[in-house]
Design goal:
Layout (H helix, E strand, L loop, with lengths): L6 E5 L3 H5 L12 E5 L4 E3 L4 E3 L6 E2 L2 E7 L15 E8 L2 E2 H4 L15 E9 L11 E6 L2 E7 L7 H8 L10 E3 L21 E6 L3 E9 L3
Parallel strand pairs: 1-12, 3-9, 4-14
Antiparallel strand pairs: 1-2, 5-8, 6-7, 6-12, 7-9, 10-11, 10-13, 13-14
Length: about 220
């Protein structure tokens, strides 16, 4: 889990978040899948980095499913059984670079922009398939996002069944399941993370992921 092979991410997975962004008139019919690299994430309590080329560093609270079994062509009924446990993720995004093209990968993969942790809670400690969990982000103690995983447009089990039509999921892979509304780019004026801030992601039953924010040096 310390060096996942694949970090499979799901965008546009809460309707209110879709409505606050540029895809508000194009509601997705299928899961929006993209990938992150290991170099784009930082552990609990370690700084996440605002790059010097952009000030548009946004937070995103997300639930992570940690894969425990090799899986391909998984049925909907069996999908929850491949999950070893759960964690929290801050899908730090450089919006300026994400919006420049139709492919989001560069804006999602700046070095050390995503937070991951604080630990893994085993699957049997939470509701099956991560249902009904409160999820929240806080920036410097202020609640920015607050929702429930029941409001996912593409729930965890459905997403696993969909993704494994294409790719084999392997033990230690991460499935990052999308963020609710309330992100910084949608606020008026926008709210961006900057050096000196502290961002917390809390998922009910999992814990609190806390990362200080630092500006890139050099």
């Amino acid at each position: 889990m310390t060096r996942p092979g694949k970090i499979v991410c799901l965008g546009l997975n809460y309707m209110d978040h879709v409505k606050e962004g540029p895809q508000r008139d194009n509601i997705p019919k299928f899961p929006t899948i993209f990938l992150r690299t290991v170099t784009s994430i930082a552990p609990h309590l370690s700084p996440i980095i605002r790059p010097r080329v952009s000030d548009q560093f946004d937070y995103e609270a997300e639930l992570v499913a940690i894969v425990g079994k090799r899986a391909k062509h998984v049925s909907l009924a069996d999908a929850p059984d491949i999950i070893a446990g759960w964690s929290c993720f801050n899908e730090g995004s450089i919006r300026e670079y994400q919006r420049r093209t139709t492919q989001w990968d560069l804006g999602k993969n700046f070095d050390r922009t995503g937070g991951f942790g604080p630990w893994m809670v085993s699957a049997d400690e939470l509701p099956r398939a991560g249902k009904g969990l409160k999820i929240q982000s806080r920036l410097n103690g202020q609640v920015m996002q607050s929702d429930n995983t029941d409001n996912m447009m593409f729930p965890v089990a459905e997403t696993i069944a969909y993704v494994t039509q294409a790719m084999t999921l392997e033990p230690g892979d991460l499935l990052v399941t999308g963020t609710p509304s309330g992100v910084g780019h949608a606020r008026k004026p926008p709210v961006w993370m900057k050096g000196g801030d502290v961002c917390e992601i809390e998922v009910e039953g999992v814990g609190i992921l806390r990362n200080p924010v630092a500006d890139e040096q050099g």
